[in-house]
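In response to the reviewer comment on reproducibility (Comment 2.3), we provide here a single inverse folding case reported in full, input and output, so that an independent group could reproduce the run without further information from us. The structure tokens appear first.
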């Protein structure tokens, strides 16, 4: 894996208290980087080495950011609440705030930006999704705003010396995720002894453990490679197989029910071609069965 960052390199993370941003923060601290996190308030439960910059994307503390002097920025902040974010009008606000934010980075001496996009920017073709050949066709307000931000980065940062990597995240899961996300929701139902009635059991997704996402983002932070990168495993798993694996690990395989499921899913096959990311030396380390077992153990705690 390429690594062009010296220990002590200053990195600013927006969304660093979140599910994915937090995974990157843990990796950056382990690598000896000097980490600042944008947040309305410090979180005492997180690592004491973190520098807290009090503010938000809407109210950026520019004086504090300038004093910190980041060489690298990871922009992970966005609206991501399940059931709300896909068609929320707030996506337009996040796009506006993000474009305003990145436009100021060259003047701060930032030399690298890693920004988080989404796999659903792509047209869903039934084949592995490739950065260089799969067309884009964002169908939700969230995906359209992300795709527009990616396009906007080229205009804002072209010729400034800021290298940009765009991380299209596939389907992350793991301890600490929102309780309404698939794995956590299934774990809760299994623990309650509820039947898992799957509406789209054959829908196939690329599930990637949150720690593998953190490692992938760290690989992009430490690389000079630019452009879009799929952050996925390259392995498709049906929702039925995902649920049966969880239920089996919990000793409750009888809880999974698919009979009568007939709801279509426009995102029926969302699987990455992860070759470009792997070319940086990254490989997923957490097998699905191990990740799901960790979810069950986390739930017990």
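Designed residues, in position order:
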């Amino acid at each position: 894996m390429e690594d062009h960052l010296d220990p002590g390199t200053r990195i600013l993370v927006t969304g660093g208290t979140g599910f994915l941003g937090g995974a990157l923060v843990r990796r950056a601290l382990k690598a000896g980087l000097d980490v600042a996190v944008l947040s309305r308030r410090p979180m005492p439960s997180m690592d004491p080495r973190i520098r807290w910059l009090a503010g938000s994307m809407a109210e950026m503390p520019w004086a504090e950011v300038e004093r910190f002097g980041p060489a690298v920025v990871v922009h992970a902040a966005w609206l991501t609440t399940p059931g709300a974010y896909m068609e929320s009008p707030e996506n337009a606000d996040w796009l506006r705030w993000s474009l305003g934010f990145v436009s100021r980075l060259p003047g701060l001496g930032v030399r690298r930006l890693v920004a988080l996009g989404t796999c659903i920017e792509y047209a869903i073709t039934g084949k592995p999704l490739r950065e260089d050949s799969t067309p884009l066709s964002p169908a939700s307000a969230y995906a359209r705003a992300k795709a527009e931000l990616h396009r906007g980065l080229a205009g804002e940062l072209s010729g400034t010396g800021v290298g940009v990597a765009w991380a299209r995240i596939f389907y992350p899961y793991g301890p600490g995720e929102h309780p309404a996300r698939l794995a956590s929701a299934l774990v809760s139902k299994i623990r309650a002894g509820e039947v898992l009635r799957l509406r789209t059991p054959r829908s196939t997704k690329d599930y990637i453990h949150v720690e593998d996402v953190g490692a992938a983002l760290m690989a992009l932070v430490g690389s000079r490679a630019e452009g879009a990168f799929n952050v996925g495993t390259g392995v498709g798993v049906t929702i039925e197989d995902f649920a049966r694996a969880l239920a089996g690990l919990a000793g409750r395989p009888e809880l999974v029910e698919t009979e009568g499921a007939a709801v279509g899913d426009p995102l029926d096959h969302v699987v990455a071609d992860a070759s470009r990311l792997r070319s940086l030396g990254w490989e997923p380390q957490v097998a699905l069965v191990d990740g799901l077992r960790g979810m069950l153990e986390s739930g017990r705690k």
